[in-house]
Amino acid sequence: MSRTKTSDYDGFSAEERAVMKERAQELKKEARRKSAADKAAEAERDVLAKIADMPEADRVLAERVHALVKANAPMLAPKLWYGMPAYARDGRIVCFFQSAEKFKARYATLGFDTEANLDDGPMWATSFALTEITPEVEERIAALVRQAVS
């Protein structure tokens, strides 16, 4: 069976290929121009949007945890981690909030990952149940966060 050519199209011309390459380079430059501050602001917006979408009980806790982490460890960068608010140093998670609703748990959790400096002998806690945030709980969270980044 023979094919008959229905057009003289041989692909893109050299000029068209050059223009496409130029546009690809422009897009790469635009992506690189996005500053670290822009990326950090976008990550924080993502975290705040995730918190805003939580059921009220979890949202109230997550908002306070977010404020306490920002106040006591401003060097930590907010980011989403497994769909939950987390706070990282140099890209590595230090602490995180887990919604009770998302994990079908009795309580929300404030957790600390291996980057957190909470070491206390041969055994120490790395997560804490949260049911409400009282002034005493705020003080404890603030102290834990400060210790985690020390």
UniProtKB/TrEMBL annotation:
Name this protein carries in UniProt: DUF1801 domain-containing protein
Alphabetized UniProt keyword annotations: Coiled coil
Residues in coiled coil: 17-44
